[in-house]
Write a structure and sequence with these properties.
The protein contains 7 helices and 13 strands. It has 305 residues and is of the alpha/beta class. It binds adenosine-5'-diphosphate (ADP) and magnesium ion.
């Protein structure tokens, strides 16, 4: 048999994902045909202005909210097709979620070990293994000495570490975090991002982290920016002889739509009707009044082929 195996499916795959909030006759289209794919073992950061749709995307990926249209698949689960039972199993075993507020994942009356054991009930982890696994997870996030502290006895950073252990209690293949460092000071935020990265690597997780932290690019494989409910650009750090630099790409969807970065729009004054002409292997976007022959390339306007 010499069949070439197909490339593995990305663990997170969104195509044309739409999410509409409907309340009292009002409709908000929070995700407007979003495309995203994240490979197994990859960690990406999602950035974007407030209101751009980041939390909505995370809630759909977490199985807390439904796609209104389009495709959302995570670890082989089609999120538009889940019934109630499937949804509960998905949320318990496929994704771990870290919230902005650690308290959202913690029970105030329980110590750290019991907090981590709690989701194992719904996850049906073997009873005898639960305590050992919880201790192991807490040790892995650097809290081996704080097993019996209750949330109020822990610092904000330590609480977020317990929340991370809680999110990983049922060994999900996918880790989601929505602004997990927003409540923390700079140094603690940095340390938590490093913990997330280390756990993600050690456990081979696929991770999507929403953040405002401009430093996050150094902790992840790729930074994806969302604008108006769509993925607009993505940035990777590439190392070459001149050192490390950010390589930013604009994302074009299947229909050929893309978002021109605002700085370029402002600098060129491009708006409304524009002229799009072929230029070598690419295309140029020019003002409509530039005339059909302008383009500066012998390839401009040439037919395909
Ligand atoms: P971000 O996390 O990037 O700040 P959100 O996903 O929270 O953005 O919000 C995206 C858009 O959806 C915003 O316009 C917001 O006002 C709207 N929105 C969010 N949640 C709701 C809701 N429950 N009902 C109605 N509109 C909502
Ligand atoms: Mg948000």
């Amino acid at each position: 048999m010499s069949a070439v195996s197909p490339p593995p499916e990305p663990v997170v795959r969104c195509e044309g994902l739409v999410h509409i909030y409907r309340s009292e006759g009002l409709e908000v289209v929070a995700l407007q045909g979003l495309d995203l794919s994240v490979d197994e073992g990859e960690m990406i950061a999602i950035v974007g202005r407030s209101g751009s749709g980041k939390t909505t995307l995370m809630n759909v990926l977490a199985g807390l909210d439904w796609p209104s249209a389009g495709l959302a698949r995570v670890a082989g689960w089609d999120l538009a097709q889940l019934d109630e039972g499937g949804r509960a199993t998905y949320r318990t075993t496929v994704v771990g979620y870290v919230w902005q507020q650690a308290q959202a994942s913690l029970t105030a009356e329980l110590d750290a070990v019991k907090n981590v054991q709690l989701p194992m009930v719904a996850g049906r982890r073997p009873w005898a293994a639960r305590r050992g696994e919880a201790v192991e997870l807490l040790a892995a996030v650097g809290l081996g000495e704080r097993l019996h502290s209750r949330p109020a006895q822990l610092s904000a950073g330590e609480q977020q570490r317990v929340a991370l252990a809680v999110a990983l209690a049922n060994r999900p293949p996918v880790l989601l975090a929505d602004e997990p460092t927003a409540q923390l000071d700079g140094a603690t935020a940095h340390a938590i991002l490093e913990d997330l990265r280390r756990m993600q690597r050690e456990l081979g997780l696929t991770a999507v982290i929403v953040t405002h932290d401009p430093q996050v690019a150094h902790h992840v494989d790729r930074v994806v920016q969302i604008r108006d409910g769509r993925t607009s650009t993505e940035t990777r750090w590439v190392a070459d002889e001149t050192g490390a630099r950010a390589d930013e790409l604009v994302i074009m969807d299947r229909a050929g739509r893309l978002q021109v970065p605002p700085a370029l729009l402002a600098a060129t004054g491009l708006a409304g009707r524009v002229r799009v002409v072929r230029h070598g292997r690419g295309v140029l976007i020019l003002p409509a009044d530039s005339g059909p022959a302008v383009g500066g390339s012998p390839d401009a306007g040439a037919p395909d082929g």
